Amino acid sequence: MKRALSKMAFFLIILFGLSLAVLVPIRHQEQEFQLASLRTAMSAVISMQATALEDGYFSWSELQDLINERKMIGADELLKPIYETYPFVQNISIQPGVPPAESYEIEGLNQSIYLIFSIKDDYGYSALPGWKAVIILDAQKIINSIHPGGNLVIDPLHGITLVNNIKVRFSTPFFSFVDYLIAAFASVALGYPLWMYLKKRTVYFYETKGLESIIFLFEQTEKSSANHSRRVAALALFLGKHLGFRGSKLRNLYTAALLHDIGKINIPSDILTKKGPLTAEEIQSMKMHPLISARILKNFKELAHLEKTVLYHHERMDGLGYPEGLHGKEIPLEARIIAVVDVFEALIGDRPYREPVDVLSAFEMLRSMPLDQEIVEVLAAHYHEFSAFQSPKWAVAYDPIGVV
Ligand SMILES: [Fe+2]
Ligand SMILES: [Fe+2]
Questions:
Q1: How remote is the CA of residue 223 from the centroid of ligand 2, in Å?
Q2: SS percent in the chain: helix, strand, coil, step 5
Q3: Cα–Cα 20 to 30 A to 191, which of 108, 129, 305, 366?
Q4: How far is CA 29 from the centre of its chain?
Q5: Ligand 2: distance of its center to the CA of 384 in Å?
């Protein structure tokens, strides 16, 4: 039970991981989308600011004249209102240097965006040679204003390029709490049916290929009744159907019939194959086989529930059977069914030490035995249909039984 639980937990963890893995491309796509829209908005904001600054301040003959006359304090005074109008501006400076070829240039470095202007006259011409104006914008402030979620931070070392060499990364974890909830829900919702399916497949394996190999191994040791178990199982299946068994009940009857004599594996083969009458001691040893069959089945968790059926397949209605001497309906129905088909198969089947009994005589003999006669009559009434009976695909193969 503990092992099954830890297996189940492991299985759920794997599914949880897989569900998260499924979310990776979705979240990745989302991030890509966020970045793309931010890129467009950011470029627009920067260009708009640059154009407005160019028109408003750097195409201004008064400013140009002050700089030309080296009246830098006066020039700074003229530019001061920029700080109030443009909240992203961090610094304004007039510097000697080569003015940009175009009206302005944009450069990004670390946390800042540099807008570089030439200083022109009121008409936007005659850029002042040897001078430029540099305005530094706070890139993070722009990002925050466009992307109010606030999960994008500038990271010049490890970020993804946004615009103008400004690099950003997402500050929130890749998976949100909701993602973990989705993954947990998906792993349980998917995991339960999948777990049940896999479990069913394991049991199915036991009931088909697994059983086939157990029976094959059994027959290698116990050659005298090779094919007996397969035929008893086929007859039990046929009879069980006519008695109204369906689904797992029918399958259990079949499996128990297939394994009813598996305990013979423990009985010396010279006793099993002895042609003459058995000694009292040998009979005792032979009578152990239902107990051993039951004990073997008990050791397989997929088969343990069939223990009682195989244990009582030699019980008889008059209480003279073994191992417990149960009477009549004290014997489980499945064990009574197997008892009938077991004896029937033993009578009509080929045995090295005697000729098979014909079917009619076999039924006569069954009627005189302390078996469940209701079951005997159902078998007698329908046996003529047995040769046309199609075993389901999970049943193991068997050699045909002669029908008269
Ligand atoms: Fe038996
Ligand atoms: Fe048997």
A1: 13
A2: 60, 10, 30
A3: 305
A4: 25
A5: 22
Is the pTM higher than 0.70? no
DSSP annotation of 103 reads S
**Which ligand neighbours the alpha carbon of 263 most closely?**
1
Q: Which 3 state secondary structure label does DSSP give 89?
A: strand
Phi, psi of 75 (to 5 degrees): -65, -45
Residues 6 or more apart whose Cβ sits within 8 Å of residue 10 = none
Residues in a beta bridge with 104: 117
Cα 270 to ligand 2 centroid, rounded to whole Å: 17
228 CA distance to ligand 2 middle (Å): 7
Classify domain 203-388 at the CATH superfamily level. Answer: Hypothetical protein af1432 (1.10.3210.10)
- Find the 202 Cα to ligand 2 centroid distance in Å: 27
Cα(159)–Cα(169) distance, integer angstroms: 5
Give the CA distances from residue 374 to residues 317, 340, 347, in Å, rounded to whole numbers and listed in that order. 12, 10, 19
Q: Where are the domains of the chain?
A: 2-175, 203-388
Residue 382 contacts residue 359 (beta carbons within 8 Å): no
Ramachandran category for residue 124: left, alpha or beta (phi over 0 → left; psi -120 to 50 → alpha): left
Instruction: Tell me the CA–centroid distance for residue 54 and ligand 1, in Å.
Output: 104
Q: In whole angstroms, what is the distance from residue 386 CA to residue 25 CA?
A: 59
Mean pLDDT by 10 residues, the chain (404 residues): 74 84 82 81 81 84 89 89 85 91 87 92 87 92 78 88 87 80 83 77 64 71 71 94 94 92 82 83 91 87 90 97 96 98 91 82 97 97 90 74 48
